[in-house]
């Protein structure tokens, strides 16, 4: 749970409230609606996305209500008393169907579906998008780093240059994606993530000499000393001083945990540092590297340059999802009452899929992910053997002999969460299990193979008929 800021009802875009007021006065308040959450493009030019943020979203949703001062504020913004009286008792009371946190997901499939009255579905849009888009972006980034880290570990150092309090979500999502610890103490406590840390240049600078700074730190934290060796000169001063302190620590019955390299050529310096430490008898001292790292630099350091690095500290690029500012997830109306709804767009790729839907994942004979399919909920998956390209019907693919599983599961019923709380370790392990089933060609960084998401014939026909109707009625 996050530090409380009271109730979260105002954590929404104003238009959600003005529309909700409109629904209220036009007698649409009791109409049932279905909305889909989906995104259109995998971030980082990648071949997959990691779904994260579900538990956080549900936690925030349980606090999505309006206290007296919120109601007064909305009154000052011109909202009407009768509607505000309705908001006083507002609580989400609908159903939510979702893929599991840590699932591998793909563009254009609904990964979460909300069912409820039109007002409640509308009001929670911004909260949902805010949390799921960001955590999924960062979990994906973290997992990309994990994919190239081999057996090395990395810690999230991102808080200081993250987007404000988004750092809390970033740390959570980073751990789901594969970080082994975080420097962000609040996130560590809230989500039971191992906390870790080394020391900053200010520590070293605050003493008269580097050696004095190293000794002082080792004395006060003998169980976990990682010395930052680049304040003056890594090879001529930092590492020789670290070796002196390692020797003194051994005499006192302790062990130096590691050194941290934070500038210069990390491959060259780590190889030299390893040699110097080993020759001095300290092969147990770990080498940690940091400085504007990302998955591409980590991959190059480990697989092309044989860097002698045991662990990475990764900050800004991880916590901000650099170079992608956001996952482009959207929330679209798919059904009102028994009427399927869709959005027509000039851009054919942006036409939405109408109706209440379920997503199935098909696997090949070896159990590897093969295709995902979007079907109308009432369809029998056993009858579906051909999947159609969502935009170009002349492109289709057979799933004749594949096994399948539904991906959307009920996680909220009549406003109450059914979600069995999982630890972040469990969510991460689920991600690992699922990612193993995703063929490697979708995981490579350069021009990954496109994972196909198709739609059923019935869904395609429903959409086409509705589109024709909408164009004629316009
Ligand atoms: N061997 C390497 N291969 C690829 N990238 C590297 C390697 N070593 C370091 N880098 C990256 O190169 C960049 C070096 O940063 P920069 O040019 O700012 O120098 P610096 O070492 O940080 O210097 P200073 O700290 O004095 O400003 C960082 O982004 C770092 O991650
Ligand atoms: O480069 P990032 O991936 O964002 O990783 C975090 C960086 O933040 C710290 O530097 P900073 O200059 O903020 O503080 P320092 O004085 O401790 O070096 C740390 O030394 C890393 O270099
Ligand atoms: O513990 C560290 O070394 C650390 C923490 C945050 C940012 N940079 C480094």
UniProtKB/TrEMBL annotation:
User: What modifications does the entry list under PTM / processing?
Assistant: Transiently phosphorylated on a His residue during the reaction cycle. Phosphorylation strongly increases the affinity for substrates and increases the rate of nicotinate D-ribonucleotide production. Dephosphorylation regenerates the low-affinity form of the enzyme, leading to product release.
Q: Which molecular function term from Gene Ontology is one that the record holds? A: nicotinate phosphoribosyltransferase activity
Part of which pathway?
Answer: Cofactor biosynthesis; NAD(+) biosynthesis; nicotinate D-ribonucleotide from nicotinate: step 1/1
Q: Which Gene3D superfamilies match?
A: Aldolase class I, nicotinate phosphoribosyltransferase
Q: Where in the numbering of this chain does the Nicotinate phosphoribosyltransferase C-terminal domain appear?
A: 356-462
Keywords, in A-Z order: Glycosyltransferase, Ligase, Phosphoprotein, Pyridine nucleotide biosynthesis, Transferase
Tell me the ranges covered by the Nicotinate/nicotinamide phosphoribosyltransferase domain, including all copies.
Answer: 154-352
GO terms of biological process kind: NAD+ biosynthetic process via the salvage pathway
Stated name of the protein: Nicotinate phosphoribosyltransferase
Native species: Maribellus comscasis
């Amino acid at each position: 749970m996050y530090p409380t800021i009271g109730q979260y009802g105002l954590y929404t875009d104003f238009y959600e409230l003005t529309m909700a007021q409109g629904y209220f006065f036009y007698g649409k308040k009791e109409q049932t609606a279905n909305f889909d959450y989906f995104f259109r493009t995998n971030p980082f030019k990648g071949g997959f996305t990691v779904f994260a943020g579900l538990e956080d979203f549900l936690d925030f949703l349980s606090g999505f209500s309006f206290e007296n001062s919120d109601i007064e504020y909305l009154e000052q913004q011109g909202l009407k008393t009768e509607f505000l009286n309705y908001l006083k008792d507002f609580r989400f009371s609908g159903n939510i169907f979702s893929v599991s946190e840590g699932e591998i997901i793909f563009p254009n499939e609904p990964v979460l579906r909300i069912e409820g009255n039109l007002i409640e579905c509308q009001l929670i849009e911004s909260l949902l998008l805010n949390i799921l888009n960001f955590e999924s972006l960062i979990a994906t980034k973290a997992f990309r780093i994990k994919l190239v880290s081999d057996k090395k570990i990395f810690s999230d150092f991102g808080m200081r240059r993250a987007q404000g309090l988004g750092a809390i979500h970033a740390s959570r999502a980073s751990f789901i994606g594969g970080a082994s610890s975080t420097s962000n103490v609040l996130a560590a406590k809230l989500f039971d993530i191992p906390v870790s840390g080394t020391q900053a240049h200010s520590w070293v600078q605050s003493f008269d000499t580097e050696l004095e700074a190293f000794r002082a730190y080792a004395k006060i934290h003998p169980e976990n000393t990682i010395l930052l060796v680049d304040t003056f000169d890594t090879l001529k001063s930092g590492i020789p001083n670290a070796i002196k302190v390692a020797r003194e620590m051994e005499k006192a019955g302790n062990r130096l945990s590691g050194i941290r390299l934070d500038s210069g050529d990390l491959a060259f310096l780590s190889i030299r540092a390893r040699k110097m430490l080993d020759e001095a008898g300290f092969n147990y001292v770990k080498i940690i590297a940091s400085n504007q790292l990302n998955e591409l630099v980590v991959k190059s350091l480990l697989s092309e340059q044989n860097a002698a690095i045991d662990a990475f500290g990764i900050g800004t690029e991880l916590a901000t999802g650099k170079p992608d500012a956001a996952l482009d997830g959207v929330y679209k109306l798919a059904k009102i009452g028994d009427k399927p709804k869709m959005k027509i767009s000039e851009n054919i790729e942006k036409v939405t899929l109408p109706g209440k839907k379920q997503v199935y994942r098909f696997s090949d004979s070896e159990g590897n992910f093969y295709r995902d399919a979007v079907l109308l909920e009432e369809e029998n998956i056993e009858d579906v053997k051909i999947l159609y390209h969502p935009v170009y019907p002349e492109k289709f693919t057979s799933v004749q002999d594949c096994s399948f599983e539904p991906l959307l599961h009920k996680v909220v019923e009549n406003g109450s969460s059914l979600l069995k709380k999982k630890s972040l370790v469990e969510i991460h392990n689920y991600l690992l299990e699922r990612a193993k089933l995703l063929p490697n060609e979708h995981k490579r960084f350069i021009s990954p193979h496109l994972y196909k998401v198709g739609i059923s014939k019935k869904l395609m026909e429903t959409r086409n008929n509705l589109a024709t109707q909408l164009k004629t009625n316009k």
